[in-house]
């Protein structure tokens, strides 16, 4: 029995955690401290905080991966959730390993906007597009993240291709088309943007840079 107990402990999954980008939410874990046997499989359950019943995630029942997609199961983004994982190896079942509480609205990472340079002469005109969630409207289009948060676009300009340290904030607001004026003809400029979430005081990563010569 002690040997079994040791084996149970040694295969128990470690570091069970949710990771989430734009509400695409996955549960991740690491194998137990025993070197992972080839026949180790994992079982995943989830529940809303406060519910007594755990629910099986059928697609992640007896899997070899260390990740399970729970995007659809966590679609009520204001609710707090838990996930848990157990391992089975050589007929021995570990105990469950529990994640921390996860509230998608609070904890998802918001991705950068998409930036398109539409025109440049003495000015640069940009089109900005907020990222989308994985959730769909009845018509089938994906719901943008702006439906869930009051988001601001932050647009930065870099005066030449090299000097990424000197980004200048040239716009903050909600407009999806913006014009950056009074630029030097013949000069090269790069533009990057972020999403800013005032209510959480958090910013996304920068978008990829769009460069243009006037």
From TrEMBL:
Main localisation: secreted
Key word Nucleotidyltransferase present: no
Keywords assigned: Disulfide bond, Receptor, Repeat, Secreted, Signal
Pfam families assigned: Interfer-bind (PF09294), Tissue_fac (PF01108)
Secreted found in the keyword field: yes
Domain Fibronectin type-III: 12-107
GO cellular component, one term: plasma membrane
Any one Gene Ontology molecular-function term assigned to this protein's record: cytokine receptor activity
Cellular localisation: Secreted
SUPFAM superfamilies per UniProt: Fibronectin type III
UniProt cross-references to InterPro entries, sorted A to Z: FN3_dom (IPR003961), FN3_sf (IPR036116), Ig-like_fold (IPR013783), Interferon/interleukin_rcp_dom (IPR015373), Type-II_Cytokine-TF_Rcpt (IPR050650)
Described function: Receptor for IL22. Binds to IL22, prevents interaction with the functional IL-22R complex and blocks the activity of IL22 (in vitro). May play an important role as an IL22 antagonist in the regulation of inflammatory responses.
Family to which this protein belongs: Belongs to the type II cytokine receptor family.
Name of the protein in question: Interleukin-22 receptor subunit alpha-2
Organism of derivation: Nyctiprogne leucopyga
Phylogenetic classification of the source organism: Eukaryota, Metazoa, Chordata, Craniata, Vertebrata
């Amino acid at each position: 029995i002690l040997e079994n107990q040791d084996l149970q402990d040694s295969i128990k999954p470690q570091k069970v955690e949710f990771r989430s980008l734009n509400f695409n939410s996955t549960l991740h874990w690491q194998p137990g401290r025993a070197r992972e046997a080839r026949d180790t499989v994992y079982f995943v359950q989830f529940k809303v905080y406060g519910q007594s019943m755990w629910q099986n995630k059928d697609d992640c029942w007896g899997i070899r991966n260390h990740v399970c997609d729970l995007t659809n199961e966590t679609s009520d983004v204001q609710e707090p959730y838990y996930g848990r994982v157990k391992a089975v190896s050589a007929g021995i079942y570990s105990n469950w390993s529990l994640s921390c509480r996860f509230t998608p609205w609070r904890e998802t990472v918001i991705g950068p906007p998409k930036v398109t340079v539409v025109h440049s002469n003495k000015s640069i005109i940009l089109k900005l597009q907020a990222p989308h969630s994985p959730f769909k409207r009845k018509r089938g289009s994906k719901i943008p993240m702006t439906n869930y948060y009051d988001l601001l676009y932050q647009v930065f300009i870099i005066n030449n291709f090299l000097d990424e340290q000197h980004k200048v904030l040239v716009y903050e607001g909600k407009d999806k088309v913006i014009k950056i004026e009074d630029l030097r003809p013949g000069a090269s400029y790069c533009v990057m943007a972020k999403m800013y979430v005032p209510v959480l005081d958090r910013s996304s990563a920068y978008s990829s840079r769009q460069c243009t010569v006037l």
